[in-house]
Structures are given as structure tokens and as C-alpha cells.
């Protein structure tokens, strides 16, 4: 569980950057080399590599070396974990709103049931 | 009930047959909170409920698990706009589980006929620095929510 949590931390930190989210979006359509990934961004290859390292540490991207070319692919497992966490919180808040509705709908609002004394 | 999610925030909404004012008070008066704030499931009870309803004022919202363990959410109010909007920070009280706060916004939109759309947005992890040290908070929350779902393990 602790290991999972540490990984979630890294996942969310990695996802907090729009460039990294764009990289992930591109990788969702298939593998790319670092050079191909760098192209649409006005960024140096080292800058892109830095983002890739963050994504790699978060377990979102896998890099494999083929000769001199680094291929990158999406590793969806961490994304699923993150979505899973949000899903749990969603269950929590939906439960709370459900409880609020049950409470509020059987408790008449005092302001609407109170006659104006004047 | 509608829900939309992104990886860093989630939004839950629900139409409730009550006025915005009544619902705002249900969220902000301890005596009322005690009547509904608890986890679903057998054995969960409402715990300590104290709050200081003003911008910068703090709250403590407790729930007690079936095993007797207390889970207290704490934070401070960022926006108190009766009866339309309530914004507060959200984290766990236990100092060993203390983490950077996430933000909860609850909006009460009058939709007519005495009904209100309650929209709850929980945002966190919007920037990198907030995620530092979240490990224990995640663990705590996961186990808390596990418990609420009948012990389904993550």
C-alpha cells in the first residue's frame, strides 16, 4: 500500500505539467522516439528528455534503447492507479451527497416553514 | 448524480429537494452536520464536529470507523458565501499523516421549485509542490475508503 501511495504521488506530480500531459497524449496513439516527441514542442531535446525522466520515474512511460534511438511507450498502469484513487474519492463524495440528500429531504427548511412574525 | 473526473480533480453534483439556504446550513452548522456526515456502511458513526465559519476559520470533521478508529478531516474556510458557495481546504488531522491541503468547493445553485443543485469539486495536485509528502495521506485515505466500500482491498 505504501509503495502504491508513493507511486501515486509521483504519478500526480508528473501529471501536473501540461507538456508532460501532451507527451502522454501523443504516446497514447503509439510509440515514438525522443526526437519525434520533441518536434511539436518548441523545446530542446534535453528539455524533453527531462520531462521524459519524470514520466519514467512516475511509471507512466517506458523507454527502450534500440541502437542509438530511444523509443518511448506509454505505461498505462500508473494512470489506472491514479484514476482509481480519484474513483475512490468520487465514491466518498457521492456517498456524502447521498447522505445529505436523505437528511435534507426529510428535514423541512426552517426558513420556508416559518411564518413572518410581523 | 453526475460526476466528471480528471486526473487532478473531480466534480460530483446532485439535485436535492431543499433550498440553497437549508443545504448551506446543513454543511455549516455542527448540530446538522452530526446528523448526516458519516461514511456509508455499518458501524460508522459521526465523530467530533467543530467549526468556525468565517474565512480563515478552522473546522474538524470526524468519523469513527467500526474498529473505533477516528478519522478526522481538518482544514480552513477559504470562502464563505451564504447560501451559494463554500470553499475549504481538506486534509487529515493526524500529524503523522499531515499532507498539503487539497481544496473542496461546494456550490449550492437554486434550480427552482425549492430544489438545489449541489456541485462539489475536489481539487488537488494542481502543482508539484502540493504532492510532496502525500504518501501517508494517500495510505490513510485509501484505507478509509476501503473500509467504506466494505473492505474491498486496493
The overall average pLDDT of chain B, rounded, is 76
The protein's oligomeric status is heterodimer
Radius of gyration of chain A from CA coordinates: 23 Å
Question: What's the CATH architecture name of the domain at 2-37 and 81-148 in chain B?
Answer: 2-Layer Sandwich
Counting H and I runs of at least 4 residues, what is the number of helices of chain B?
4
Tell me, what's the shape of chain B?
Answer: globular
Determine the CATH superfamily of the domain at 2-77 in chain A.
Answer: Winged helix-like DNA-binding domain superfamily/Winged helix DNA-binding domain
Helix content range of the residues of chain B, please?
10-25%
Low-confidence stretches of chain A: 112-118
The best one-word shape of chain A is elongated
Strand content of chain A: 5-15%
What would CATH call the class of the domain at 2-77 in chain A? Mainly Alpha
Helix content of chain A: 55-70%
CATH topology of the domain at 2-37 and 81-148 in chain B: Alpha-D-Glucose-1,6-Bisphosphate, Chain A, domain 4
CATH superfamily assignment of the domain at 2-37 and 81-148 in chain B? START domain
What does the largest sheet of chain B look like?
Answer: 8 strands, antiparallel
